[in-house]
Design a protein that fits this description.
Blueprint (H helix, E strand, L loop, with lengths): L1 E5 L4 H13 L3 E6 L2 H7 L5 E5 L11 H10 L2 E4 L10 H8 L1 H11 L6 E7 L8 E3 L12 H16 L5 E6 L1 E2 L13 H10 L5 E3 L5 E2 L1 E2 L1 H14 L6 E4 L2 H4 L1 E2 H15 L1 H5 L6 E3 L1 H14 L2 H17 L3 E3 L2 H7 L13 H10 L13
Parallel strand pairs: 1-2, 1-4, 2-3, 4-5, 5-7, 6-15, 7-12, 8-11, 9-14
Antiparallel strand pairs: 10-13
C-alpha cells in the first residue's frame, strides 16, 4: 500500500498524517509546494515529501517523482483546499475546482489506485435550510466563495464516480482537538471568537435555537482514515459532522464562550462585554450597512471578519449522518457532543492568544 496525501500541512492533514503513521499502512507520500518547510511541520517517520502543486496539470512534478507515484500509489486522499471564506471566486476555484480536476486526472494515470477520497464541506448546501441528506446535491445559492467553489468541486467529483473509485467526505467546521483543545489551524469561527473576546462582535444573525455543527479534528481524521483505508466504498458521500444529536444550540455556544472567557481571564468579566445580540437577517444586513457607512475602519474590518462565519448561521440546517454512522458502526469512532470539548478549544484560543503563543492576560 502507498498513500498520496494532498493538504498534509493543513489542520486536518496534519492529524491525518499522525493517524496514518500510527496505523503503519505502507508508504505515505505528501504532496507539498515546499517540502523543506513541510518536513518541519510534520515530524513523522515514514513520510516522504514530494514537491508539487495541485493547481498545475500533473502537479508540475519532477519526472522521477511522477513515475514513482504513478507506479506505487494505491490510495489517494485529497485534502488540499483554499478554505478562506473571503477569496475572490476565481482564486477559490483555482484550488478547489481546478485542483481537484488535476487530482482526478493524475489518479487516472496511477495504475494501482484502488480508492480516491476527496474532502468537502457540509456547507455546499449553501443557503438551504432544514435537514441536509448525504445524497443531497442542490443549494439555493451560497453565502461565500468557499461554499460555491466546493459545490462546484463536488460536481467534478460526481462526474468522475462513473469511471474512478472515488468518494466524497463532507466535514462540518473543524475546530480543535477533543482531548486537548489544541488548534493547529485557525479558521473563521476562531477569528469570530477573538473579535467577541475584544468586544468587536456586537451582533450576529440567526436564532438562539439554531443548531451549530462542529467536529474535533481527531474525530475527523480517524473517521476519514477508517472510511478510506479500511472501509472504502466508491461512489459514496458521507457527512462527517455532529448531526442533530451531537451538535449544540447557538445559545449554548454563546453561554459556554462567555463562561470560558470569564474563567480564563477574570479581568475580561470586569470589562462587562455583552455577548453578541442575535438578530434576524434583515436587521443584521442593516447593521452591516450602517457599519460600512460609519467610517470606523476597526469596526468595519471586524464586522467583515465576523460575517465570514456569521452568515452561515442565518440559514439554519442540520446534517443527516446516517451513511457515515452505519459505515463507522462498531469502530468506536463517533463524533463527541460539541458541549464536551468546545470549552477546551476556547480556552486554548485564549491562553495562546489565538495562536500567537503569548498570554492575553495583560490585554484582558
Amino acid at each position: 500500500m502507498a498513500i498520496l496525501l494532498t493538504g498534509g500541512t493543513g489542520a486536518l492533514g496534519r492529524e491525518l498524517v499522525r493517524v496514518l503513521r500510527d496505523d503503519a499502512q505502507g508508504e505515505l507520500f505528501i504532496l507539498t509546494r515546499d517540502p523543506s518547510s513541510a518536513a518541519g511541520v510534520i515530524a513523522q517517520p515514514g513520510v516522504r515529501f514530494i514537491h508539487g502543486d495541485v493547481t498545475h496539470e500533473g502537479f508540475a512534478l519532477a519526472d522521477s517523482d511522477a513515475a514513482v507515484l504513478r507506479g506505487q500509489v494505491t490510495q489517494l486522499v485529497h485534502c488540499a483546499a483554499a478554505t478562506s471564506f473571503t477569496l475572490p471566486l476565481e482564486t477559490a476555484r483555482a484550488v478547489n475546482v481546478h485542483g481537484t480536476r488535476n487530482v482526478l486526472a493524475f489518479a487516472r494515470d496511477c495504475r494501482r489506485v484502488a480508492s480516491i477520497a476527496c474532502a468537502s464541506t457540509v456547507y455546499v448546501a449553501g443557503r438551504r435550510t432544514g435537514i441536509i441528506r448525504e445524497s443531497d446535491t442542490s443549494s439555493d445559492g451560497w453565502v461565500n466563495t468557499y461554499e460555491q467553489s466546493k459545490h462546484e468541486m463536488e460536481v467534478v467529483v460526481r462526474d468522475a464516480m462513473t469511471t474512478l473509485p472515488v468518494s466524497l467526505y463532507r466535514f462540518s467546521t473543524i475546530i480543535g482537538h477533543s482531548q486537548t483543545g489544541e488548534v493547529t489551524g485557525f479558521n473563521a469561527i476562531h477569528h469570530a471568537l477573538r473579535l467577541f473576546y475584544h468586544g468587536l462582535a456586537p451582533m450576529i444573525p440567526g436564532d438562539l435555537a439554531t443548531r451549530i455543527d462542529l467536529v474535533p479534528v481527531d474525530f475527523a481524521a480517524r473517521a476519514l482514515h477508517h472510511l478510506v483505508i479500511h472501509g472504502f466504498e466508491g461512489g459514496r458521500t458521507y457527512h462527517l459532522s455532529a448531526g442533530t444529536e451531537r451538535s449544540c444550540t447557538l445559545d449554548e455556544l454563546l453561554a459556554d464562550t462567555v463562561s470560558v472567557f470569564e474563567q480564563s481571564r477574570p479581568a475580561w468579566r470586569k470589562r462587562r462585554i455583552e455577548r453578541p445580540a442575535v438578530v434576524d437577517v434583515d436587521t443584521y444586513a442593516l447593521f452591516t450597512r450602517s457599519v460600512e457607512e460609519s467610517g470606523n475602519v476597526v469596526l468595519q474590518r471586524a464586522t467583515q471578519a465576523v460575517q465570514a462565519f456569521a452568515w452561515q448561521m442565518a440559514y439554519p440546517k442540520t446534517f443527516d449522518t446516517t451513511g457515515a454512522d452505519a459505515a463507522l458502526a462498531d469502530t468506536g469512532i463517533v463524533a463527541p457532543h460539541v458541549n464536551t470539548y468546545y470549552g477546551k478549544v476556547v480556552r486554548h484560543c485564549v491562553e495562546t492568544s489565538w495562536g500567537r503563543g503569548a498570554s492575553d492576560g495583560a490585554a484582558a
